[in-house]
Amino acid sequence: MSRVCWQCGSRTDDERRVRCDCGEPLWLDTDPESVPDSWPDRVESMWDVLPLLGVDRPEPSAGLPTAAGGTPLLRGETLDAEGVTVHVKHE
Protein backbone atom coordinates (compact mmCIF):
# COMPACT_ATOMS: atom_id res chain seq x y z
CA MET A 1 0.00 0.00 0.00
CA SER A 2 1.36 3.37 -0.98
CA ARG A 3 1.93 6.24 1.42
CA VAL A 4 1.43 9.86 0.43
CA CYS A 5 2.49 13.11 2.05
CA TRP A 6 -0.51 15.33 2.68
CA GLN A 7 1.70 18.43 2.44
CA CYS A 8 3.84 18.01 -0.68
CA GLY A 9 2.15 15.03 -2.37
CA SER A 10 5.26 12.84 -2.65
CA ARG A 11 4.68 9.08 -2.53
CA THR A 12 6.55 6.05 -1.22
CA ASP A 13 5.94 2.30 -0.99
CA ASP A 14 8.46 1.96 1.84
CA GLU A 15 6.37 0.45 4.67
CA ARG A 16 8.95 1.52 7.27
CA ARG A 17 8.56 5.25 6.55
CA VAL A 18 6.13 7.31 8.60
CA ARG A 19 7.40 10.79 7.65
CA CYS A 20 8.09 12.45 4.33
CA ASP A 21 11.44 14.05 3.52
CA CYS A 22 9.68 17.39 4.03
CA GLY A 23 9.00 16.37 7.65
CA GLU A 24 5.25 15.88 7.42
CA PRO A 25 3.42 12.61 8.24
CA LEU A 26 2.74 10.08 5.50
CA TRP A 27 -0.86 8.93 5.08
CA LEU A 28 -1.96 5.58 3.72
CA ASP A 29 -3.30 5.88 0.21
CA THR A 30 -6.21 3.47 0.55
CA ASP A 31 -7.67 1.98 -2.60
CA PRO A 32 -11.43 2.72 -2.38
CA GLU A 33 -12.13 -0.60 -4.13
CA SER A 34 -10.53 -2.47 -1.21
CA VAL A 35 -12.94 -0.95 1.32
CA PRO A 36 -16.07 -3.05 1.90
CA ASP A 37 -19.46 -1.54 1.08
CA SER A 38 -20.79 -2.49 4.50
CA TRP A 39 -19.40 -3.09 7.98
CA PRO A 40 -20.43 -5.35 10.84
CA ASP A 41 -23.09 -3.88 13.12
CA ARG A 42 -20.64 -4.11 15.99
CA VAL A 43 -16.91 -3.45 15.67
CA GLU A 44 -15.17 -5.16 18.57
CA SER A 45 -11.55 -5.00 17.51
CA MET A 46 -9.29 -3.09 15.16
CA TRP A 47 -9.09 -6.28 13.10
CA ASP A 48 -12.77 -5.86 12.19
CA VAL A 49 -11.73 -2.90 10.01
CA LEU A 50 -8.58 -4.55 8.62
CA PRO A 51 -9.01 -3.25 5.03
CA LEU A 52 -8.56 0.31 6.33
CA LEU A 53 -5.42 -0.38 8.36
CA GLY A 54 -2.96 -0.92 5.54
CA VAL A 55 -1.30 -3.85 7.29
CA ASP A 56 -1.66 -7.61 7.32
CA ARG A 57 -2.95 -9.30 10.43
CA PRO A 58 0.02 -10.83 12.30
CA GLU A 59 0.35 -14.58 12.59
CA PRO A 60 -0.52 -15.93 16.06
CA SER A 61 3.11 -17.03 16.44
CA ALA A 62 4.22 -13.37 16.19
CA GLY A 63 3.74 -12.84 19.93
CA LEU A 64 2.91 -9.40 21.34
CA PRO A 65 1.67 -7.77 18.10
CA THR A 66 -1.19 -10.26 18.02
CA ALA A 67 -2.44 -8.79 21.29
CA ALA A 68 -2.99 -5.45 19.54
CA GLY A 69 -6.61 -4.55 19.15
CA GLY A 70 -7.73 -6.41 22.24
CA THR A 71 -8.99 -3.30 24.02
CA PRO A 72 -12.69 -2.49 23.70
CA LEU A 73 -14.25 0.14 21.46
CA LEU A 74 -16.95 1.84 23.55
CA ARG A 75 -19.88 3.95 22.45
CA GLY A 76 -19.83 7.49 23.87
CA GLU A 77 -23.52 7.55 24.77
CA THR A 78 -23.52 11.04 26.30
CA LEU A 79 -23.52 12.61 22.82
CA ASP A 80 -26.32 10.41 21.45
CA ALA A 81 -28.94 12.95 22.55
CA GLU A 82 -27.18 15.55 20.36
CA GLY A 83 -27.37 13.25 17.35
CA VAL A 84 -23.64 12.48 17.37
CA THR A 85 -22.31 8.94 17.34
CA VAL A 86 -18.87 8.65 18.92
CA HIS A 87 -16.84 5.55 19.70
CA VAL A 88 -13.89 5.68 22.07
CA LYS A 89 -10.96 3.25 22.12
CA HIS A 90 -10.30 2.33 25.74
CA GLU A 91 -6.61 1.56 26.11
List the helices and strands and how they pair.
Blueprint: E1 3-5, E2 11-12, E3 26-28, H1 50-53, E4 73-75, E5 87-89
Antiparallel strand pairs: 1-2, 1-3, 4-5
Structure commentary:
This protein is mainly beta. The chain folds into two domains: 1-30, no CATH class; 38-56 and 70-91, no CATH class. The protein is built from one helix and five strands. The protein has a three-stranded antiparallel sheet, with no helix packed on it. Strands 4-5 form a two-stranded antiparallel sheet. A hairpin with a 5-residue loop joins strand 1 (3-5) and strand 2. The mean pLDDT is 77.
Residue runs with pLDDT of under 50 for 5 or more positions: none
- Number of helices, where a helix is a run of at least 4 consecutive DSSP H or I residues: 1
Please report the total strand number as a whole number. Answer: 5
Strand content: 15-25%
**Helix vs. strand class:** mainly beta
Mean pLDDT across all residues, rounded?
77
